[in-house]
Amino acid sequence: MENFRKESDLLGVLEVPVNAYYGVQTQRAINNFKISGQLLSSYPEFIKGLAFVKKAAAKTNYELGLLDENLYFTIAEVCDELINGELHDQFPVDMIQGGAGTSINMNANEVIANRVLEKLGKNKGQYEFCSPNDHINLSQSTNDAYPTAIKMGLLQMNISLVEKLEKIVEAFRAKGKEFQDVIKMGRTQLQDAVPMTLGQEFEAFAATLEEDISKLNNNANLFVEVNMGATAIGTGINAPVGYATLCAKNLAQLTGFPIVSAPDLVEATPDTGSYVIYSSAMKRLAVKLSKICNDLRLLASGPRAGLSEINLPPMQPGSSIMPGKVNPVIPEVVNQVCFKVFGNDLTVTFAAEAGQLQLNVMEPVLSHAIMENIHFLGNALDTLREKCIVGITANKEVCLNMVKHSIGIVTALNPYIGYKQSTAIAKEALETGKSVYNLVLEKELLSQEKLDEILDPKNMLKPHNK
């Protein structure tokens, strides 16, 4: 039995694995683009996005009288199979490719066509009965189907990323409640500032990340505007009258997202602004996440010669030469993910800027950078939450002793003895090693009762009147 079948295209005849649902154009892409090693099959949401687009297109073509009923329903069945996760191994093209996404679009067209042929009792490659171009790609171009599929994929991926973000916010908030009575020194510029609670610090981590939930969702909402019906450049050539609006309506019905047709399809076809702003929201999240990981590593530093205010869960031995050393490997790996996100955001910026005239041919690397960022960030959020945040414990006595011996508490005396006197007390405490408390009493600046009230750490955690 032969292991290959022969298919032909513009460039000639090519052998395709006999059992493959993809065809000649996909095979050319496999041969031409051995770039990233990350295949379309690595991103199931993207494949589902392609299937939603092809199903909506088929439904629209059927409703406009361009597809017969049997072929439409069979195409719809195959698209549902892809949406349900079947045949994803038939999408072997590299995410980074030349051709403005034509290889990915044709990969979908060929897989759907050959599966339809199989359901109709035909052989793979008998395209006279169901053609990748004439039936699956009917009334479409790569230039509208491909970016629309990207957007459908990103809308799905954003839901998953936000769910992971919500979970880590909850984890930080739970630690905030757990540590609400742990008094510690706050710091600015790595120097002692004023007292706070460890709970306030962790609640702040939760609050800053929570802000990015709405940012991600709001920016993802820009993906609901699509250019289906634009075909090649936005003029709608080869698409019937009314196709664009009806296809967007059908896509909204199928996906559950409020999809609308872009008001100017010529503008929408090369436009990549929605990708840029969504990528910027991920960069913002990554900046905050990396800062938090820096803080966790500082707070856990030591354990004997650092701050040692918290303990991170020990995950693995930290050295091949230093016995007993345990490193903060989880915050470290999340830091590195964030650096990757920063770099991919720059890739998105350059790719978006590189659009020329009526098309941006750099959408493959642009979409890959965004999807990789979502994938990396989602994994990093889960890893940080599961393997670090939930297991953090506080060194309560260490935190309290730092407050008691800090010069920073002199700030609380400003409203009572003035900035000049407070500065003098702080300077003398630093030079002599005496405590702020004893110096104030020695100089009879305040009564012991009043001083105890002012310097009670709990009284320095929120605004109050003199």
Automatic annotation (TrEMBL):
Its EC number is 4.3.1.1. Belongs to the class-II fumarase/aspartase family. Aspartase subfamily. It comes from Chryseobacterium indicum. PANTHER family: ASPARTATE AMMONIA-LYASE. Transmembrane segments: none annotated. Residues 409-461 form the Fumarase C C-terminal domain. One of its GO terms (molecular function) is aspartate ammonia-lyase activity. The gene is aspA. Gene3D superfamilies: Fumarase/aspartase (C-terminal domain), Fumarase/aspartase (Central domain), Fumarase/aspartase (N-terminal domain). Residues 14-343 form the Fumarate lyase N-terminal domain. InterPro entries: ApsA, Aspartate_Ammonia-Lyase, Fumarase/histidase_N, Fumarase_C_C, Fumarate_lyase_CS, Fumarate_lyase_fam, Fumarate_lyase_N, L-Aspartase-like. It catalyses: L-aspartate = fumarate + NH4(+). The keyword Transport does not apply. CDD domains: Aspartase (cd01357). Keywords: Lyase. It is an enzyme of class 4 (lyase). This is Aspartate ammonia-lyase. It comes from the Bacteria.
